[in-house]
Amino acid sequence: MDKKMIVMDLDGTLLNDNSEVSENTKNYLNKLKQDGYIIVLATGRILKSALIATDEAEFANYIVTDAGAAVYKKSNENNDWEKVYED
């Protein structure tokens, strides 16, 4: 199967009017991730702010932060976010 990637912004896109990710959305993105989709969050926020807004972004594989200046990958070993790119 070819890999498929879904990339989405946080503010004004993924986050609802209460500035949070709904449980339905989290469940759906988790299902897509389990089905092999690569889920990427892109934001101008710093990592800590993005994680707070998404309840630790358990449904994502990558987070692009700081308006593209840093990329983090979800570590399979310790379930932390490891930096894989920094400008």
3D structure, described in words:
- It is globular, with a radius of gyration of 12 Å.
- A 5-stranded mixed β-sheet has the order 1-2-3-4-5.
- The mean pLDDT is 94.
- It has helices spanning 10-14, 23-34, 47-53; strands at 5-9, 38-42, 62-65, 70-74, 81-86.
- It has 87 residues and is of the alpha/beta class.
Descriptive terms for the model:
87 residues, alpha/beta, 5-stranded mixed β-sheet, 5 strands, 28% helix, 29% strand, globular
Task: Please give the structural blueprint.
Layout: E1 5-9, H1 10-14, H2 23-34, E2 38-42, H3 47-53, E3 62-65, E4 70-74, E5 81-86
Structural class: alpha/beta
Q: H/E series, N to C?
A: EHHEHEEE
β content, as a range? Answer: 25-35%
Net shape: globular
Question: Ends: how far apart?
Answer: 32 Å
Give the % helix: 25-40%
Strand order in the sheet with the most strands:
1-2-3-4-5
Brief rundown of the structure:
The chain is an alpha/beta fold and 87 residues long. It has three helices and five strands, in the order βααβαβββ.
